[in-house]
Amino acid sequence: MTTPLSVSQYLRQHIRTVPDWPAPGVQFRDITPLLQDPRVFRVLIDAFVHRYMAPELRPDVVAGLDARGFIVGAVVAYELNVGFVPIRKKGKLPFTTVEETYELEYGSATVELHTDAVRPGQRVLLIDDLIATGGTMMAGKRLLEKQGAVVTEGAAIVDLPELGGSERLRAAGLNLFTLVDFEGA
After folding, report:
1. How many domains does the chain have?
2. What does pTM read for this prediction?
3. For the segment 9-54, what is each residue's pLDDT rounded down to a tens digit?
4. What SS3 class is residue 21?
5. What is residue 18's DSSP assignment?
6. 44: domain range?
7. Oligomeric state and partners (predicted)?
8. How many other CB atoms are found less than 10 A from the CB of residue 88?
9. Is residue 136 in some structural domain?
């Protein structure tokens, strides 16, 4: 008899590692296989939905970070019967926006949010596919807070703790929930 896999182990089996992409020495964690298999995709979404159905964690709205955070975040919002808010790369939103610039390994990037995307006091779940250095999620948190929202938790499929992002986010007061940890792998 085989021992059943945990959700984390099951999902980890379906994350593809692409060596030396986008640069030599980088082990890219590709989540697209999680999305391609309907059974695996359901396990992924259900893991988030079951967590955030709990009254103490239930958000008023889900915010997804451009672009893979849109895929998971929109489905989670739908399943929770709450609204979805996209946080986009600069220049992609058509209405009045607020923006936040953050540092990347080489240069900087800016993300934007519509000024009417959230209301003061709304509880927001901020979701992305992966936490590396934490810059994108931190920028998303700041944007939402500029509008008066309360970011209750940051969620991601994958955490790459060696890059320090999850530690930085927690140090900044953001509760985090991730499904798969690739520390040292």
Report:
1. 1
2. 0.95
3. 999 999 999 999 988 988 999 999 999 999 999 999 999 999 999 9
4. coil
5. E
6. 7-181
7. Homodimer.
8. 19
9. yes
